[in-house]
Amino acid sequence: MIVTVRKLQDTQHEYIAYTKSLCGKATYFVCFEDSIWGAVNLHSFIEMLKIFFKQKKVELKLSDKALSVKNKEILSLLQNKQDNYLD
Q1: Residue closest to 49 by CA, chosen among 15, 79, 20, 7
Q2: N or C: which end of the chain has fewer CB within 10 A?
Q3: CB neighbours of 41 closer than 8 A, spacing ≥ 6?
Q4: Domain locations in the chain?
C-alpha cells in the first residue's frame, strides 16, 4: 500500500496524504500541517490504514506536485474551517 503526500496549492504549511483502497473503490485521506501535531496525525493515519487493511508496512511517497482544490467550500472542509461551512 502506498500513501502519497502532496502540498495543498496556495498554502504554506498544509498537506494531504491519501491512498486508494486495495480494491480501488475508495480513497482515504488526511489533511495535516507541517507541525508536530501534523506528524502525529499522519502517523495515526498510516497506523489506521495498516490495521484496517492488515498491512505489515505502508510506503510513504512524497509528490513534488501541489494539489489544487478549485472548490473553496471543499478546501474549507479539508482545512477544517468550520465557520465557512456551518451556517
Answers
A1: 20
A2: C
A3: 30, 32
A4: 2-84
Which stretch of DSSP H or E encloses residue 29?
strand 27-33
When comparing pLDDT for 19 and 75, which is higher?
19
For residue 81, count other CB atoms closer than 10 A to its CB: 13
Q: How far apart are the first and last CA of the chain?
A: 38
Cell representation of residue 4: 502519497
The DSSP bridge partners found for residue 63 are none
Distance between CA atoms of 5 and 10, rounded to whole angstroms? Answer: 16
| Sign of the Cα pseudo-torsion (7, 8, 12, 17, in order) | negative
